[in-house]
Design a protein that fits this description.
Elements (H helix, E strand, L loop, with lengths): L8 H11 L16 E2 L5 E7 L4 H17 L5 E5 L5 H10 L6 E5 H9 L12 H6 L2 H4 L3 E2 L2 E2 L2 E5 L2 E6 H7 L12 H10 L6 E3 L6 H9 L7 E3 L5 E3 L3 H15 L17 H5 L3 E7 L2 H8 L6 E5 L9 E3 L2 E5 L6 H11 L2 H11 L2 E2 L2 H4 L11 H6 L4 E3 L8 H18 L4 H19 L2
Parallel strand pairs: 2-3, 2-4, 9-12, 14-17
Antiparallel strand pairs: 1-2, 4-15, 5-6, 7-15, 7-16, 8-12, 8-13, 10-11
Helix pairs in contact: 1-4, 2-14, 8-10, 9-10, 10-17, 17-18
């Protein structure tokens, strides 16, 4: 599971500065340094990984060791990074000339470094095997200004984790990946599962923006649109309002959703889920690991697909990515390591370690990822519905999210403001923010 990064004024200022750079900044140069040296004097490539769960760290370290055994002339050093601090840590290392050669990050964080010229253009370095194995819809998440700056390799759909006993006793239709609930059905089911001191659903919306925007793709909602001149603008039409309105009404009108969880992160809702206070949790796919480890032995849980709308069951994701520093003097060798790391069997190992889905077509065929146990089969069946998150390439998005959208959605979901006021803030105030980045 990805640990959310902490924002703050400094990061917003850095994002704003990078986003305001001209498109020409997307063409980074390459320094001619001689590379770093290991204890034996050989040039070493440094790979910074953000794996943090034991299974994931073990898989990454094992693959680095295997590479080093097979390629003693191109040694790779494993460097442990951390999700909460990675953005500022990388920016500091880039500016100080000490950046790792191979960089693990996420596509929604990568735009800053791509526009800033800190990571290399990989377009001409990608091996044909790797390029063909990952679908075009996934490549979009690592592409900025028509050039590839990150190789997407792990992705996390949003699913519904349900109390199996409550679901079975209710008699409602159990959705499948082929036939998910509609948003209307989901609302009715949440109401049906409420009562007796419990709620049908708990929405952990401490970070409400990406959840809302990514799920809104299913209803045809795209809050960011491109004008004929290529500039992005905010719209909040009827299609984009379906998901926010559903959540708002569950909390404030039907009262089938718990108000107390709106300010929580996903892990915060698990004790209440195990205690029977909530029947359904909309969560990222990787939360299954925590549930498998923490749930009482007799607790029955199941994984269901997220609801579908007028546009089907599609949803947005921000995959984890691998990039190469623009200053790396051995880009071809670095790409060879990336290609090794993402060979289908190795990509499967990384996916299992992180409890996420691989992007590669061949890796998705692995039997281990198609088992019913822990809902793997449900998640794998959703792979074709995943699209690049709609906001990650929009300049000014981080400021819009922090200053406009996050407080706006939080107040709307809690009932403090209505839909008209939310629309005014997102569109009017939001477009003022975006305009400063697109002059």
């Amino acid at each position: 599971m990805r640990v959310p990064r902490d924002g703050g004024p400094r990061r917003r200022a850095l994002l704003a500065a990078a986003a305001a750079l001209p498109a020409a900044a997307l063409l980074p140069g390459c320094s001619g340094g001689g590379g770093r040296r290991g204890k034996d004097g050989r040039s070493v490539l440094r790979f910074q990984s953000l794996a943090w769960q034991k299974e994931s760290v073990d898989a990454n370290r094992q693959l680095v060791a295997e590479w080093n055994r097979l390629h003693p002339d191109i040694p790779v050093q494993y460097v442990q990074g951390a999700w909460p601090t990675v953005h500022d840590q990388l920016l500091t290392s880039f500016e100080g000339g000490e950046a790792p050669d191979i960089i693990h990050d996420a596509s929604d964080d990568l735009a800053d470094f791509a526009y800033g010229g800190y990571v290399a253009d990989l377009t001409g370095l990608l091996p044909r095997r790797l390029k063909d194995d990952i679908p075009a819809r996934s490549w979009e998440s690592g592409t900025f200004g028509g050039r590839v700056y990150g190789v997407p390799f792990l992705q996390e759909p949003r699913v519904l984790i349900a109390d199996g006993v409550k679901l079975r006793r209710s008699g409602v239709r159990v959705p499948t990946a082929g036939e998910p609930w509609t948003w209307e059905e989901f609302g009715a089911v949440a109401k049906e599962l409420s009562g007796g001191g419990g709620y049908g659903v708990a929405w952990p919306l401490k970070e409400p923006v990406s959840v809302t925007l990514n799920l809104a793709l299913s209803t045809g909602g795209r809050i960011f649109r491109r004008r004929p001149d290529g500039r992005a603008e905010v719209r909040f039409d009827a299609a984009g309002q379906v998901v926010p309105r559903t959540i708002h009404d569950q909390v404030n009108v039907v009262r089938s959703a718990a108000r107390t969880t709106l300010g929580m992160g996903g892990a915060d809702t698990l004790p209440g889920f195990f205690a029977g206070r909530y029947a359904i949790l909309p969560l990222g796919f990787s939360y299954r690991q925590q549930i498998a480890q923490q749930a009482p032995k007799d607790f029955e849980w199941t994984v269901l697909p997220a609801p579908r709308g007028a546009a089907g069951a599609v949803q947005g994701v921000s995959p984890q990515t691998l990039s190469i520093s623009a200053d790396c003097p051995r880009k071809e060798e670095a790409m060879a390591f990336v290609d090794f790391l993402l060979r289908p069997p190795n990509m499967v190992r990384l996916a299992l370690g992180d409890w996420m889905l691989p992007t590669g077509r061949e890796a998705l065929k692995a039997p281990e990822l198609r088992e019913d146990r822990y809902g793997w089969a449900t998640g794998t069946a959703l792979a074709d519905t995943l699209r690049a998150a709609p906001a990650q390439s929009v300049r000014g998005y981080p400021e819009w999210k922090d200053k406009i959208a996050t407080p706006g959605f939080q107040e709307y979901y809690s009932g403090a403001i209505g839909l008209d006021e939310l629309r005014r803030r997102l569109v009017h105030d939001g477009n003022l923010v975006l305009a400063r980045y697109q002059r």
